[in-house]
Design a protein that fits this description.
Blueprint: E1 2-5, E2 12-14, E3 18-19, H1 33-46, E4 50-52, H2 61-69, E5 78-83, E6 85-89, E7 92-95, H3 99-113, E8 118-124, H4 128-131, H5 134-146, E9 149-155, H6 158-162, H7 167-172, E10 177-183, H8 195-201, E11 205-209, H9 238-254, H10 262-271, E12 276-279, H11 286-293, E13 309-311
Parallel strand pairs: 3-4, 4-5, 5-8, 8-9, 9-10, 10-11, 11-12
Antiparallel strand pairs: 1-2, 1-13, 6-7
Length: 312
């Protein structure tokens, strides 16, 4: 595995991480404790050390499965989770960035993850009004001082990127947010225009989420593919999905060398940008995890990354 530093923090993460939204059970598969434990144990053997989850991935379900699985290996992992949502019932979420509520969310996340600290605690896709609360950040930075949070981060909502509203990004360091998570993949390059250059110039660590465009860039699906009803992707705009898959077909024909795995090509494509420290594809089984992790062992991966990079 290969590792990069997240901006000017002391965190060094595997360039291939694990996005743990799928552990919530909303992606056409429900996971048992034993299945998640096998995945994370195998990830550890492969050198993967970064997991990204959230309080709203199944109302702490993803966090609980992770916590149970890494009880004996907590020191190996860099765990990122998020805050800002509460469940009204099983399927309905509301935004809740009230400082007192966020502290309660933190307690629940620590409990679910079975840990006494979180490596990266991220503001999760909130509005500008919800972000610009000095009291919220004062409370969170008190938790940083106490050691229960190691670093603060920001997971930027897509709409702010599409509207070129970068107010949260530009305020982030003032609030002690040194790590940014953005959507970045071959089908969605919007952040290349302003966000990624800003992060480079200001030494902000960048995590690329949805690097496989929710599976579209895996190369497994033809344009007319219909996701099953128990897969969250079935709720997405079907015409838009068809357009995306048509684009993938053309990308594969024009840009991906013959015989090269599409998923590995897509992950490498993201990691070629000098701003990106880590990509966080999901994985449903050991085979997908190993395929993702082995991206760094292919000719696609560039070892001479301009940022701090080491090999293990």
């Amino acid at each position: 595995m290969k590792y990069r530093k997240l901006g000017d923090t002391n965190l060094k993460v595997s360039v291939i991480g694990i996005g743990a939204n799928q552990f919530s059970g909303g992606w056409n598969k429900h996971f048992s404790n034993s299945e998640v434990k096998k995945i994370l144990n195998h990830g550890k053997k492969l050198g993967v050390n970064f997991i990204d989850t959230a309080e709203c991935y199944g109302n702490h379900t993803s966090e609980s499965l992770i916590g149970e699985s890494i009880l004996n290996s907590r020191e190996h992992w860099v765990i990122a989770t998020k805050f800002g949502h509460n469940f009204i019932d099983k399927n309905k979420l509301i935004n809740d960035f009230n400082p007192k509520s966020v502290l309660s969310q933190l307690e629940e996340s620590l409990k679910a993850l079975k840990t006494d600290y979180i490596d990266i605690y991220q503001f999760h896709s909130g509005t500008n009004d919800e972000f610009f609360q000095s009291e919220l950040w004062d409370v969170l930075n008190d938790q940083v001082k106490s050691g229960r949070i190691k670093q603060l981060g920001l997971s930027i909502v897509n709409s702010s990127i599409l509207s070129n509203d970068h107010l949260q990004l530009k305020k982030s360091k003032e609030y002690n947010c040194k790590i940014i998570q953005v959507v970045y993949n071959r089908l969605n390059k919007k952040v290349e225009q302003t966000v990624l250059p800003y992060c480079i110039n200001n030494h902000i660590g960048v995590i690329a989420r949805v690097p496989l465009a929710k599976g579209h860039l895996s190369g497994k699906y033809l344009p007319n593919f219909q996701f099953p009803d128990n897969d969250i992707r079935s709720l997405h705009d079907k015409k838009q999905s068809e357009i995306q898959l048509e684009k993938v077909k053309k990308i594969r024909e024009k840009e991906v060398p013959v015989g090269v795995n599409m998923s590995q090509w897509a992950l490498s494509w993201c990691l070629k940008h000098s701003a990106i420290s880590c990509v966080i594809p999901g994985c449903k089984n050991l085979e997908q995890l190993e395929l993702n992790a082995n991206t760094v062992n292919t000719d696609l991966f560039e070892n001479d990354h301009p940022l701090n990079c080491s090999i293990n």
